[in-house]
Amino acid sequence: MKCSDEFSALKHSLMNTLQRNNGKEFMPVTRNTKNVPYYLLGFGAFASLGGMVDARRGRESGGALFYLDRFFRDAKLSLPARAGDKVVFVDTSSEPTVENIDSLTGEAKAYFGTKAPCCVTGIGGGSVLDTAKAVANLLTNPGRAEDYQGWELVKNPAVYKIGVPTLAGTGAECSRTCVLLNRKRGLKLGMNSDFTVYDQILLDPELTRSAPCDQFFFTGTDTFMHCFESLRGSYRNIIVDRLSETAVGLCRDIFLGPDDMKADGNLENMMVASYLGGMAAGNTGVVHPVSAALSTVLHLPHGKANCYALSALGDFYPEERALLMEMKAKNKIDMPEGICRNLPDDRYEALYQAGIIHENPLSNALGPEYKEILSRDRLVSIFKAM
Ligand code: ZN
Fold first, then answer.
1. Boundary residue ending a domain (208, 232, 261)
2. 158 CA from centroid of ligand 1 (Å)
Protein backbone atom coordinates (compact mmCIF):
# COMPACT_ATOMS: atom_id res chain seq x y z
CA MET A 1 0.00 0.00 0.00
CA LYS A 2 1.32 3.46 -0.83
CA CYS A 3 1.82 5.97 2.00
CA SER A 4 -0.93 8.19 0.65
CA ASP A 5 -3.41 5.25 0.37
CA GLU A 6 -2.53 4.17 3.86
CA PHE A 7 -3.11 7.68 5.17
CA SER A 8 -6.50 8.05 3.47
CA ALA A 9 -7.58 4.64 4.84
CA LEU A 10 -6.55 5.76 8.33
CA LYS A 11 -8.32 9.10 7.91
CA HIS A 12 -11.49 7.32 6.76
CA SER A 13 -11.57 4.93 9.70
CA LEU A 14 -10.82 7.68 12.24
CA MET A 15 -13.60 9.81 10.75
CA ASN A 16 -16.10 6.96 10.96
CA THR A 17 -15.26 6.35 14.61
CA LEU A 18 -15.48 9.97 15.61
CA GLN A 19 -18.64 10.61 13.65
CA ARG A 20 -20.28 7.76 15.52
CA ASN A 21 -19.00 9.13 18.81
CA ASN A 22 -20.10 12.73 18.76
CA GLY A 23 -21.51 13.49 15.36
CA LYS A 24 -18.66 15.92 14.64
CA GLU A 25 -16.33 15.51 11.74
CA PHE A 26 -12.71 14.87 12.65
CA MET A 27 -10.02 15.77 10.15
CA PRO A 28 -6.64 14.37 11.15
CA VAL A 29 -3.81 16.68 10.18
CA THR A 30 -1.07 14.10 10.77
CA ARG A 31 -0.78 10.36 10.94
CA ASN A 32 -0.75 8.89 14.41
CA THR A 33 2.98 9.50 14.91
CA LYS A 34 5.54 7.88 17.15
CA ASN A 35 8.72 9.74 18.11
CA VAL A 36 11.78 8.68 20.12
CA PRO A 37 10.48 8.55 23.72
CA TYR A 38 13.74 9.66 25.42
CA TYR A 39 16.58 11.88 24.26
CA LEU A 40 19.49 13.47 26.09
CA LEU A 41 21.38 16.29 24.35
CA GLY A 42 24.61 18.00 25.34
CA PHE A 43 28.39 17.90 25.29
CA GLY A 44 29.39 14.94 27.48
CA ALA A 45 26.04 13.12 27.20
CA PHE A 46 27.90 9.95 26.18
CA ALA A 47 28.97 9.43 29.82
CA SER A 48 25.33 8.52 30.61
CA LEU A 49 25.37 5.46 28.36
CA GLY A 50 26.64 3.06 31.06
CA GLY A 51 23.78 3.86 33.44
CA MET A 52 21.24 3.49 30.64
CA VAL A 53 22.57 0.09 29.57
CA ASP A 54 22.84 -1.11 33.18
CA ALA A 55 19.20 -0.21 33.78
CA ARG A 56 18.27 -2.80 31.12
CA ARG A 57 20.36 -5.64 32.53
CA GLY A 58 18.45 -8.40 34.28
CA ARG A 59 18.29 -12.13 34.97
CA GLU A 60 15.80 -12.79 32.20
CA SER A 61 17.87 -11.33 29.39
CA GLY A 62 21.34 -11.80 27.98
CA GLY A 63 24.18 -9.27 28.00
CA ALA A 64 24.26 -6.07 26.02
CA LEU A 65 24.96 -5.90 22.29
CA PHE A 66 26.94 -2.96 20.92
CA TYR A 67 27.45 -2.01 17.27
CA LEU A 68 30.19 0.54 16.69
CA ASP A 69 31.61 2.12 13.60
CA ARG A 70 34.94 0.40 13.00
CA PHE A 71 36.50 3.86 13.16
CA PHE A 72 36.23 3.46 16.97
CA ARG A 73 38.39 0.36 16.99
CA ASP A 74 41.42 2.66 17.18
CA ALA A 75 39.83 5.76 18.70
CA LYS A 76 39.48 6.15 22.44
CA LEU A 77 35.87 5.61 23.45
CA SER A 78 35.17 4.10 26.83
CA LEU A 79 32.42 1.62 26.28
CA PRO A 80 30.37 0.37 29.26
CA ALA A 81 30.74 -3.26 28.15
CA ARG A 82 30.99 -6.13 30.67
CA ALA A 83 31.68 -9.86 30.47
CA GLY A 84 28.88 -11.55 28.52
CA ASP A 85 28.32 -8.50 26.32
CA LYS A 86 29.07 -8.55 22.61
CA VAL A 87 30.85 -5.69 20.84
CA VAL A 88 30.78 -5.66 17.04
CA PHE A 89 32.73 -3.23 14.85
CA VAL A 90 30.75 -2.47 11.71
CA ASP A 91 32.46 -1.92 8.38
CA THR A 92 30.93 1.29 7.05
CA SER A 93 32.91 1.48 3.82
CA SER A 94 29.63 0.64 2.09
CA GLU A 95 26.03 1.01 3.20
CA PRO A 96 24.30 -1.83 5.10
CA THR A 97 22.94 -4.57 2.88
CA VAL A 98 20.26 -7.15 3.66
CA GLU A 99 22.98 -9.83 3.55
CA ASN A 100 25.10 -7.97 6.18
CA ILE A 101 22.10 -7.67 8.46
CA ASP A 102 21.23 -11.36 8.14
CA SER A 103 24.76 -12.38 8.95
CA LEU A 104 25.06 -9.98 11.95
CA THR A 105 21.72 -11.24 13.27
CA GLY A 106 22.87 -14.85 12.89
CA GLU A 107 26.08 -14.06 14.84
CA ALA A 108 24.13 -12.32 17.62
CA LYS A 109 21.67 -15.22 17.94
CA ALA A 110 24.53 -17.71 18.08
CA TYR A 111 26.26 -15.65 20.79
CA PHE A 112 23.26 -14.96 23.04
CA GLY A 113 21.51 -18.30 22.52
CA THR A 114 17.95 -18.50 23.87
CA LYS A 115 18.16 -15.25 25.86
CA ALA A 116 17.75 -12.12 23.77
CA PRO A 117 20.26 -9.34 24.54
CA CYS A 118 19.04 -6.85 27.18
CA CYS A 119 19.59 -4.01 24.76
CA VAL A 120 21.15 -3.16 21.43
CA THR A 121 23.22 0.03 21.21
CA GLY A 122 24.28 1.56 17.89
CA ILE A 123 27.19 4.03 18.03
CA GLY A 124 28.16 5.63 14.73
CA GLY A 125 26.80 7.36 11.65
CA GLY A 126 23.59 6.51 9.82
CA SER A 127 24.84 3.12 8.62
CA VAL A 128 25.65 1.87 12.12
CA LEU A 129 22.48 3.35 13.62
CA ASP A 130 20.45 1.63 10.90
CA THR A 131 22.34 -1.64 11.36
CA ALA A 132 21.50 -1.71 15.09
CA LYS A 133 17.83 -0.96 14.36
CA ALA A 134 17.57 -3.69 11.73
CA VAL A 135 19.24 -6.35 13.88
CA ALA A 136 17.07 -5.40 16.90
CA ASN A 137 13.98 -5.98 14.73
CA LEU A 138 15.25 -9.31 13.42
CA LEU A 139 16.11 -10.63 16.89
CA THR A 140 12.39 -10.71 17.69
CA ASN A 141 10.93 -11.34 14.24
CA PRO A 142 11.53 -14.50 12.20
CA GLY A 143 12.91 -14.60 8.68
CA ARG A 144 15.36 -12.45 6.80
CA ALA A 145 15.99 -8.70 6.53
CA GLU A 146 14.49 -8.45 3.05
CA ASP A 147 11.17 -9.82 4.33
CA TYR A 148 10.72 -6.55 6.24
CA GLN A 149 11.75 -4.03 3.56
CA GLY A 150 8.60 -1.99 3.14
CA TRP A 151 5.90 -0.48 5.31
CA GLU A 152 4.42 -1.94 8.52
CA LEU A 153 5.82 -5.44 7.97
CA VAL A 154 7.54 -5.83 11.37
CA LYS A 155 5.08 -7.65 13.66
CA ASN A 156 6.82 -7.94 17.05
CA PRO A 157 8.43 -5.18 19.16
CA ALA A 158 12.22 -5.09 18.71
CA VAL A 159 14.81 -5.55 21.46
CA TYR A 160 15.21 -2.28 23.48
CA LYS A 161 17.64 -0.07 21.64
CA ILE A 162 19.81 2.98 22.28
CA GLY A 163 21.14 5.17 19.46
CA VAL A 164 24.29 7.29 19.77
CA PRO A 165 25.05 9.25 16.60
CA THR A 166 28.70 10.15 16.00
CA LEU A 167 27.85 11.95 12.78
CA ALA A 168 24.80 14.16 12.47
CA GLY A 169 22.51 14.65 9.52
CA THR A 170 20.92 11.41 8.42
CA GLY A 171 18.21 11.59 11.09
CA ALA A 172 18.68 7.83 11.56
CA GLU A 173 18.68 8.42 15.33
CA CYS A 174 15.01 9.31 15.26
CA SER A 175 13.50 8.02 12.02
CA ARG A 176 11.14 5.02 11.84
CA THR A 177 13.19 3.29 9.19
CA CYS A 178 16.60 1.65 8.66
CA VAL A 179 17.72 1.88 5.08
CA LEU A 180 19.14 -1.31 3.57
CA LEU A 181 20.52 -2.06 0.13
CA ASN A 182 19.11 -5.10 -1.61
CA ARG A 183 21.27 -5.43 -4.73
CA LYS A 184 19.56 -8.65 -5.84
CA ARG A 185 16.26 -6.79 -6.10
CA GLY A 186 17.98 -3.53 -7.20
CA LEU A 187 16.45 -1.48 -4.41
CA LYS A 188 17.27 0.54 -1.36
CA LEU A 189 14.46 0.40 1.17
CA GLY A 190 14.08 0.31 4.94
CA MET A 191 11.95 -1.45 7.53
CA ASN A 192 9.40 1.36 7.99
CA SER A 193 7.78 0.60 11.31
CA ASP A 194 7.09 2.14 14.74
CA PHE A 195 9.13 -0.79 16.12
CA THR A 196 12.20 0.54 14.28
CA VAL A 197 12.24 3.77 16.35
CA TYR A 198 14.99 3.95 19.01
CA ASP A 199 13.80 3.77 22.64
CA GLN A 200 16.52 6.15 23.81
CA ILE A 201 18.99 8.40 22.02
CA LEU A 202 22.09 10.14 23.33
CA LEU A 203 23.03 13.26 21.39
CA ASP A 204 26.59 14.23 22.31
CA PRO A 205 27.98 16.83 19.86
CA GLU A 206 31.52 16.09 21.11
CA LEU A 207 31.38 12.73 19.31
CA THR A 208 31.06 14.46 15.92
CA ARG A 209 34.17 16.62 16.36
CA SER A 210 36.62 14.06 14.98
CA ALA A 211 34.69 13.49 11.74
CA PRO A 212 36.64 14.50 8.62
CA CYS A 213 35.31 17.79 7.17
CA ASP A 214 33.93 16.31 3.96
CA GLN A 215 32.14 13.55 5.84
CA PHE A 216 30.71 16.10 8.30
CA PHE A 217 29.48 18.15 5.33
CA PHE A 218 28.01 15.29 3.29
CA THR A 219 26.23 13.82 6.31
CA GLY A 220 25.03 17.19 7.60
CA THR A 221 23.59 18.27 4.26
CA ASP A 222 21.45 15.10 4.24
CA THR A 223 19.21 16.96 6.73
CA PHE A 224 19.02 19.91 4.33
CA MET A 225 17.95 17.52 1.53
CA HIS A 226 15.30 15.67 3.58
CA CYS A 227 13.76 18.90 4.77
CA PHE A 228 13.71 20.98 1.62
CA GLU A 229 12.45 17.98 -0.39
CA SER A 230 9.64 17.60 2.11
CA LEU A 231 8.80 21.33 1.92
CA ARG A 232 8.78 21.22 -1.88
CA GLY A 233 6.55 18.13 -2.10
CA SER A 234 2.80 17.64 -2.01
CA TYR A 235 2.54 15.21 0.95
CA ARG A 236 2.70 17.75 3.74
CA ASN A 237 1.56 18.41 7.25
CA ILE A 238 1.97 21.42 9.49
CA ILE A 239 4.25 19.77 12.05
CA VAL A 240 6.61 18.32 9.45
CA ASP A 241 6.68 21.71 7.70
CA ARG A 242 7.66 23.60 10.85
CA LEU A 243 10.31 21.00 11.79
CA SER A 244 11.70 21.10 8.25
CA GLU A 245 11.83 24.90 8.10
CA THR A 246 13.71 25.02 11.39
CA ALA A 247 16.17 22.34 10.28
CA VAL A 248 16.81 24.05 6.92
CA GLY A 249 17.44 27.33 8.79
CA LEU A 250 19.95 25.61 11.09
CA CYS A 251 21.74 24.09 8.07
CA ARG A 252 22.06 27.54 6.48
CA ASP A 253 23.55 28.89 9.75
CA ILE A 254 25.96 25.95 10.05
CA PHE A 255 27.20 25.81 6.47
CA LEU A 256 26.92 29.49 5.46
CA GLY A 257 27.20 31.36 8.76
CA PRO A 258 30.29 33.28 9.95
CA ASP A 259 31.68 30.45 12.12
CA ASP A 260 33.53 27.35 11.02
CA MET A 261 31.04 24.56 10.31
CA LYS A 262 32.70 22.59 13.12
CA ALA A 263 32.65 25.34 15.76
CA ASP A 264 31.13 24.14 19.08
CA GLY A 265 27.83 25.91 18.48
CA ASN A 266 27.56 24.38 15.04
CA LEU A 267 28.33 20.85 16.28
CA GLU A 268 25.39 21.24 18.66
CA ASN A 269 23.16 22.86 16.04
CA MET A 270 23.92 20.03 13.63
CA MET A 271 22.77 17.46 16.21
CA VAL A 272 19.56 19.43 16.69
CA ALA A 273 18.98 19.86 12.94
CA SER A 274 19.50 16.14 12.37
CA TYR A 275 17.06 15.28 15.16
CA LEU A 276 14.37 17.67 13.93
CA GLY A 277 15.00 16.69 10.32
CA GLY A 278 14.80 13.00 11.22
CA MET A 279 11.35 13.54 12.70
CA ALA A 280 10.33 15.34 9.53
CA ALA A 281 11.94 12.87 7.11
CA GLY A 282 9.90 10.43 5.13
CA ASN A 283 8.50 12.35 2.21
CA THR A 284 11.50 13.11 0.05
CA GLY A 285 11.50 14.27 -3.58
CA VAL A 286 13.70 13.83 -6.65
CA VAL A 287 17.09 14.08 -4.90
CA HIS A 288 16.76 10.91 -2.84
CA PRO A 289 15.72 8.57 -5.69
CA VAL A 290 18.60 9.84 -7.87
CA SER A 291 20.94 9.53 -4.90
CA ALA A 292 19.69 6.00 -4.15
CA ALA A 293 20.50 5.00 -7.74
CA LEU A 294 24.07 6.30 -7.31
CA SER A 295 24.42 4.27 -4.10
CA THR A 296 22.85 1.11 -5.51
CA VAL A 297 24.73 1.07 -8.83
CA LEU A 298 27.95 2.99 -8.15
CA HIS A 299 28.19 2.37 -4.37
CA LEU A 300 28.48 6.07 -3.55
CA PRO A 301 27.88 6.87 0.16
CA HIS A 302 24.47 8.40 0.81
CA GLY A 303 25.35 11.99 1.72
CA LYS A 304 27.83 12.40 -1.09
CA ALA A 305 25.37 10.84 -3.55
CA ASN A 306 22.74 13.41 -2.45
CA CYS A 307 25.11 16.27 -3.21
CA TYR A 308 25.92 14.87 -6.67
CA ALA A 309 22.19 14.34 -7.30
CA LEU A 310 21.22 17.90 -6.36
CA SER A 311 24.16 19.31 -8.36
CA ALA A 312 22.42 17.98 -11.50
CA LEU A 313 18.82 18.76 -10.49
CA GLY A 314 18.86 22.52 -11.00
CA ASP A 315 15.79 22.28 -13.29
CA PHE A 316 13.74 20.97 -10.39
CA TYR A 317 15.31 22.77 -7.44
CA PRO A 318 17.14 25.89 -8.72
CA GLU A 319 17.30 27.77 -5.40
CA GLU A 320 18.33 24.77 -3.33
CA ARG A 321 20.98 23.76 -5.86
CA ALA A 322 22.42 27.29 -5.73
CA LEU A 323 22.43 27.13 -1.90
CA LEU A 324 24.22 23.79 -1.92
CA MET A 325 26.86 25.11 -4.33
CA GLU A 326 27.40 28.09 -2.01
CA MET A 327 27.72 25.77 1.02
CA LYS A 328 30.15 23.54 -0.86
CA ALA A 329 32.34 26.50 -1.91
CA LYS A 330 32.34 28.13 1.54
CA ASN A 331 33.43 24.89 3.23
CA LYS A 332 35.93 23.97 0.46
CA ILE A 333 34.34 20.61 -0.29
CA ASP A 334 35.75 18.78 -3.27
CA MET A 335 33.36 17.04 -5.68
CA PRO A 336 35.17 16.06 -8.89
CA GLU A 337 32.85 16.20 -11.92
CA GLY A 338 32.16 13.46 -14.42
CA ILE A 339 31.38 10.55 -12.08
CA CYS A 340 28.74 9.19 -14.49
CA ARG A 341 30.30 10.07 -17.81
CA ASN A 342 31.26 7.43 -20.39
CA LEU A 343 29.62 4.51 -18.62
CA PRO A 344 28.51 1.44 -20.64
CA ASP A 345 24.80 1.49 -21.67
CA ASP A 346 23.80 -1.20 -19.20
CA ARG A 347 25.05 1.01 -16.33
CA TYR A 348 22.82 3.89 -17.47
CA GLU A 349 19.90 1.46 -17.68
CA ALA A 350 20.66 0.21 -14.15
CA LEU A 351 20.88 3.82 -12.86
CA TYR A 352 17.54 4.67 -14.49
CA GLN A 353 15.82 1.60 -13.05
CA ALA A 354 17.29 2.11 -9.56
CA GLY A 355 16.05 5.71 -9.57
CA ILE A 356 12.61 5.46 -11.15
CA ILE A 357 11.58 2.62 -8.81
CA HIS A 358 11.01 5.17 -6.00
CA GLU A 359 7.35 5.84 -6.64
CA ASN A 360 6.46 7.58 -3.34
CA PRO A 361 9.10 10.34 -3.35
CA LEU A 362 8.83 10.90 -7.10
CA SER A 363 5.07 11.26 -7.05
CA ASN A 364 5.39 13.47 -3.94
CA ALA A 365 7.62 15.80 -5.95
CA LEU A 366 6.28 15.50 -9.50
CA GLY A 367 2.77 14.08 -9.22
CA PRO A 368 1.38 10.79 -10.53
CA GLU A 369 2.76 11.44 -14.04
CA TYR A 370 6.34 11.41 -12.76
CA LYS A 371 7.46 8.80 -15.31
CA GLU A 372 6.57 11.16 -18.16
CA ILE A 373 8.28 14.14 -16.55
CA LEU A 374 11.37 12.09 -15.65
CA SER A 375 11.73 10.12 -18.89
CA ARG A 376 14.58 7.67 -19.35
CA ASP A 377 16.48 10.11 -21.60
CA ARG A 378 16.05 12.96 -19.15
CA LEU A 379 17.16 10.91 -16.15
CA VAL A 380 20.18 9.56 -18.03
CA SER A 381 21.16 13.10 -19.04
CA ILE A 382 20.91 14.12 -15.36
CA PHE A 383 23.39 11.37 -14.44
CA LYS A 384 25.71 12.39 -17.28
CA ALA A 385 25.69 16.01 -16.00
CA MET A 386 27.19 15.09 -12.62
ZN1 ZN B 1 18.86 10.95 3.25
1. 208
2. 23
Could you tell me if residue 95 is inside a domain? yes
Q: Do 221 and 265 fall into the same domain? A: yes
**CA of residue 321 to ligand 1 center, whole Å:** 16
Q: Ligand 1 centroid vs 355 CA: distance in angstroms?
A: 14
Task: Please say whether the beta carbons of 340 and 386 come within 8 A.
Answer: yes
End position of a domain, from candidates 186, 208, 230: 208
* Segment 196-209, tens digit of pLDDT: 999 999 999 999 99
Please give the pLDDT value at position 3: 46
Cα–Cα distance for residue pair 78/66, rounded to 1 Å? 12
User: 109: domain range?
Assistant: 38-208
* Residue 305 shares a structural domain with residue 190: no
Q: Residue 56 C-alpha to ligand 1 middle, in angstroms?
A: 31
Structure letter (DSSP) for residue 342 = T
Q: How far away, in angstroms, is 315 Cα from ligand 1 center? A: 20
Q: 279 and 309: one domain?
A: yes
How many A from CA of 67 to the centre of ligand 1?
21
Co-location of 197 and 239 in the same domain = no
Residues 293 and 220 in one domain: yes
Starting at the earlier edge strand, list the strands of the sheet with 161-165: 38-41, 200-203, 161-165, 117-124, 62-69, 86-90
Across 3-17, 67-81, 207-221, the highest mean pLDDT is recorded for 207-221
Residue 101 resides in a domain: yes
Distance 129 CA to ligand 1 centre (A): 13
310 C-alpha to ligand 1 centroid (Å): 12
Q: What are phi and psi of 229, to 5 degrees?
A: -65, -35
Q: How far is the CA of 358 from the centre of ligand 1 (A)?
A: 13
Please state, in angstroms and rounded to a whole number, the distance separating the CA atoms of residues 252 and 324: 9
Distance 62 CA to ligand 1 centre (A): 34
**Å from CA of 365 to ligand 1 middle:** 15
- 361 alpha carbon – ligand 1 mean position (Å): 12
3-state secondary structure 3-14: HHHHHHHHHHHH
pLDDT value at residue 296: 87
Output the pLDDT for position 73: 86
